[in-house]
Structure formats: C-alpha cells, structure tokens
Amino acid sequence: HSVIGVDVIQSKVDAMNSGLATFHEPGLAELTAEAHRLNRLRATTSTTEAIAGTDISLVCVGTPSTAAGSLDLTFVEEATCAIATAIRAKSTPHHLIYRSTMLPGSTRGLVDAHLKDLVDEQRLQVLFYPEFLRQGTAVKDMIDPSLSVVGSYSPDDDISSVRRIFDSSTEQTDLESAELIKYACNAFHAAKIAFANEIGRVSKGIGVDAVNIMRVVCQDTRLNISPYYLRPGTPFGGSCLPKDVSALNQLSRAHALSTPMLDSLLASNEDHMDHLTEMVETAGSPRVLLLGLSFKEQTDDLRGSAAFELATRLLLKNYDVGIYDPLIVPANFTGAVGRIASLRLPNLTSLLKTDLAAAVGEKDTIVVFNRCADLAELAENLAPRHKIIDVASWPELARLSGSYTGICW
Ligand SMILES: NC(=O)c1ccc[n+]([C@@H]2O[C@H](COP(=O)([O-])OP(=O)(O)OC[C@H]3O[C@@H](n4cnc5c(N)ncnc54)[C@H](O)[C@@H]3O)[C@@H](O)[C@H]2O)c1
User: Fold this and answer.
1) Quick one: pLDDT at residue 81?
2) pLDDT under 50: residue ranges of the chain
3) pLDDT for 5-58, tens place per residue?
C-alpha cells in the first residue's frame, strides 16, 4: 500500500517526510524508514490532497476527555468536516474508517451531520473499526490484532476493504456495537487490573504472595479467564458466590483494607435484581409465571436463587405468582434448602405448577430463568397477550406468540 499521513502539526509531517517516526515504539523507526525508502509513505497537512490521492482514509485523531470527564469529539468533528469537503471534490468512491475510540452513536452522529448525502449517493462508505493495539507493542499488535471487529453504517455494507488490509477474520456488527465493544474491552481491562490490585492488597494484608495467587488464578482458563461467567443475564446466586464475596468483604474490613471494587459486587448484584423486579412490574399484570426456580439450570438448589428472590418480592406485593420447575420437589428438600424454602416461601407447594399449559394459561407475564420448559409446548400455549421476560438468554422465545424482552437485550 501507499500511505499518506495527515496531521495538523507541521513538525510531525516534516518528520514523516524525512522517514522519521514521531514517537518511540519498538520497530516503528525501522518500518517508517523502510516505507520512506520505498517511497510508500509521505505526509501532508492537507486533507484534500491526501483524500484526492487515496481510496481509504483511517481517522485516528485524539478523542480526549473534557474537563468534566466526558468525551471530546472536537478533533474527530474537525477531521470529518475536512474529509467531507475533500470527498466532495473528488469523483471516485471513498472508504472512511474511523479508528478513534468513540462512544456508541458517535459515528452515526458524524455521518448524519456531515456525510449523509455522500453515503446515500454511494460515493462514500463509512465504517468504525476500533483499534486494540497497546503502546509498547503497537507494531506487533497491528500486524496480529487480538481482536478485529468492524461496525458498518448499513448491515449489508461490504467490509472487504478491512478484511483485505487488516484481518481476514474481522467480524461485522452495527456501528454502535463496534463502538461499545471497544469500551467493554477497556472497562474489562481496567476491572481486571483493579481486581488484581485489590486481591493484591488483601494478600499482602494477610501475609500471602499476591503475584503467586494471581498467577495461579490465571491458570484456570475454563472458568476464570474464559467466556463462562462473562454473559449478561441472571443475577449471580447459588450457595457459593454471594456467601464467599460477603466473607471476603468481611476479611478486608477486619484488616482495615480498602477494597471498593470487591465491596461493590453484592450491591451491583442487588441492582440487577431490582432491575429485573422493575421489568416484571412494568409488564403490568399481577399474574406472573416463573419458569425455573433454582439458582441455575440442572440443579434444585434454591440458595441465592434470583428466581426465588423474585418470587418472594412479588408475593410481598400481592402478585399472583405461579412457578414451573420440574426439578423442584419440596418433599425432597433437605438441610439449608428446606430451611430457606419453609422460612421464606412457606406456601411454595401451592405455587408450584406441574401442568405447563394450565400454568401459562393462568398468567400473563412469563419470566424465564432457565430452559426447564419444553419450547414446543410453550409455543402451543403462549398467546399474543403474554409478555415474556427472558433472563436465560433463550433467543427462540422471541419467535413465539406474545411480546418478548430480554433482561439485558
Ligand atoms: N494510544 C493508544 O495506544 C490507543 C490504542 C487504541 C485506541 N486509541 C485511540 O486512538 C485515538 C488516537 O489516540 P492517540 O494516542 O494516537 O492520540 P494522539 O493525540 O497522540 O494523536 C492524535 C493525532 O491527531 C492529530 N490531529 C488532531 N486533529 C487533527 C485533524 N483535524 N486532522 C489531522 N490530524 C489531527 C494530532 O495532531 C495528533 O498528532 C484515540 O481515540 C484513542 O482513544 C489509542
């Protein structure tokens, strides 16, 4: 490829035109010098000149924080206006690929404000292609990206330009998803570092080796560093997570250690539970059926179950609650599960339904916690009046009669 760089700073343009990199990055000086020697790389302060001589523009200007901490799109706006003017002056089609990190809606907003006519006339294709490189390993990350996803303005946009130049396995999404994926990744990285630092402070506080602890934690790539718990849906529950997070919070307090992130986990889960409760209330009917009562699929354990918690909340508000979960047999309850059920849901037996058709027929709102019901039988018995709230991430439910909404989708 032949590349023309554009910057508003003359000294950066001059450096590139002399074959010099403008900042330190392993391998960059050599690459810049080689591209200059081959006459493949030059720079200018003129966007019009650069656009006239190229087919694809990558926008990677800064998107800093304002004094108030919000996103400042001034540089992207300025670059977009200059590019729009330059494209209007040329006759061949152009591809514009934003790489600057921008909040969801930013790219569409830029198109709608400055580029819509060019896109509609098919003189311009606009894509958002988040950049995942890290400083210090930028050249390596550029050649072998850890993730490649591109958002397109229209779902049927052809993204072969990105696949050809950068990564043949690039995934395609809408603009807003690609924009949010970049923030999700960076928030996740920040969360991992904050988590490791808090575990580190607890470790040091009790006299164990934090580095070794996190090294061992990272060895579990099935549950720890994996997609396993990384999906939106049910509030966390069960016999372990709430109890163990609570005990760890207690340990930090006992040692006067500050662990705000770990301390916020139960509150975050409670917020998610409140969000679900509000969704059921907003659905509007007092007749609610819960599909699934245990804390997760393939168990009859009710400890820490979000479905069980929702049932108790709704009953306190005088909702007419029914529960369908073939694995829940109160006569078989022993130990803690039996105690929780008799203390918090003493009338559980009368709420449990064994006939799915009759249970669905009696209720209007159906909250699905797991796939304990047969989809075909559900399909037969759901009517247009039913409102399905999906907590289990069961997309086939959206194709059944009634309205469908997911807890986070
Ligand atoms: N630095 C990273 O490691 C990294 C990684 C991934 C994503 N990003 C994102 O990439 C974007 C750029 O980051 P950066 O660290 O390279 O920023 P930077 O501020 O170091 O560089 C941006 C360059 O854009 C130039 N510029 C500003 N307005 C211009 C205009 N109208 N026309 C032409 N050039 C203009 C500036 O002069 C500057 O040289 C940001 O959105 C950032 O969040 C950065």
Assistant:
1) 98
2) none
3) 999 999 999 999 999 999 999 999 999 999 999 999 999 999 999 999 999 999
3-state SS, the chain, equals CCEEEECCCHHHHHHHHCCCCCCCCCCHHHHHHHHHHCCCEEEECCHHHHHHCCCEEEECCCCCECCCCCECCHHHHHHHHHHHHHHHCCCCCEEEEECCCCCCCHHHHHHHHHHHHHHHCCCEEEEECCCCCCCCCHHHHHHCCCCCEEEECCCCCCCHHHHHHCCCCCEEEEHHHHHHHHHHHHHHHHHHHHHHHHHHHHHHHHCCCHHHHHHHHCCCCCCCCCCCCCCCCCCCCCCCHHHHHHHHHHHHHHCCCCCHHHHCHHHHHHHHHHHHHHHHHHHCCCEEEEECCCCCCCCCCCCCCHHHHHHHHHHHCCCEEEEECCCCCHHHCCHHHHHHHHHHCCCHHHHECCCHHHHHHHCCEEEECCCCCCHHHHHHHCCCCCEEEECCCCHHHHHCCCEEEECCC
Atom 38 of ligand 1: nearest residue by CA position: 61
Question: Is 240 tagged catalytic?
Answer: yes
Q: What percent of the chain has pLDDT over 90?
A: 99
Ligand 1: residue of 4, 6, 7 to mutate (most ligand atoms within 8 A of CB) is 7
* pLDDT for residue 241: 96
CATH fourth-level superfamily of 3-175: NAD(P)-binding Rossmann-like Domain (3.40.50.720)
Q: Can you give the pLDDT at residue 137?
A: 97
The ligand 1 atom nearest the CA atom of 75: 28
Ligand 1 site, CB within 6 A: 6-9, 12, 60-63, 75, 78-79, 100-101, 131, 133-135
Q: Which of 60, 81, 240, 408 is catalytic?
A: 240
CA-closest residue to ligand 1 atom 33: 7
**CATH class of this structure's domain 268-406:** alpha beta
| Atom 14 of ligand 1, nearest CA residue | 62
Residue nearest to atom 7 of ligand 1 (CA): 131
CATH 3.40.50.720 residue ranges for the chain? 3-175, 268-406
